[in-house]
Hints:
Blueprint: E1 2-5, H1 16-26, E2 30-32, E3 36-45, E4 50-58, H2 59-71, E5 75-76, E6 82-83, H3 86-100, E7 109-113, E8 133-138, E9 143-147, E10 165-170, E11 172-174, E12 180-182, H4 186-190, E13 199-200, E14 206-210, H5 218-230
Parallel strand pairs: 4-14, 9-13
Antiparallel strand pairs: 1-7, 2-3, 3-4, 3-7, 5-6, 8-9, 8-10, 11-12
Amino acid sequence: xxxxxxxxxxEGTIHxxxxxxxxxxxxxxxxxxxxGLEYHASVTLYDNxxxxxxxxxxxxxxxELKFNSLHAKVYHGxxxxxLLHQDDVQxxxxxxxxxxxxxxxxxxxxxxxxxxxxxxxxxxxxxxxxTHYFLVRFDDGSFENFRGSETGFYEVPFGKEFENIxxxxxxxxxxxxxxxxxxxxxxxxxxxxxxxxxxxxxxxxFTCYFGGSxxxxxxxxxxxxRINFRE
Length: 231
């Protein structure tokens, strides 16, 4: 489903308040322990590049998190705790910012759609212990194997939709013969590695930030947007 689209022939960019309203109406947000509310979508860029997995996060919230982490005191060790030099802490944070984020600008986007690769919020409370593997059962009675991912995006089994998942079994996988085994440790996986039914993996994603630095998070922006669009 198309959430927001602008005509490429007309100069212009996506309006943040309209986008916030459309996301609020069309996509159920995901709660991230660090970034708060975020929205998962698929987008098309001006050059027709299609990005299947994109996370919209609040810019002000991200700035606050990075600013606080740059000034936080970090200790090393458990028994004899040593305060790390602030320069080392800040360099480590900057390195992670540069190396880990695939970021796109809101002005590069011409179309935003719902994302079929995003795991629904209600299914995200998966325990990756003792292993990161899990088995899901769909409403048609079929089962599919997955390897846990922190991204929240997964390969979609052919002919399936994540909304039709009815049950999840942590540290459990199905063999090619249809038998289901519980993984109590890494060796349970290693000993059966060649016999598992196809395992679906997580997908990488891009991040797009929007929202004013004067706003605390998407919750605050949503409250303003809902008032404005009621008027």
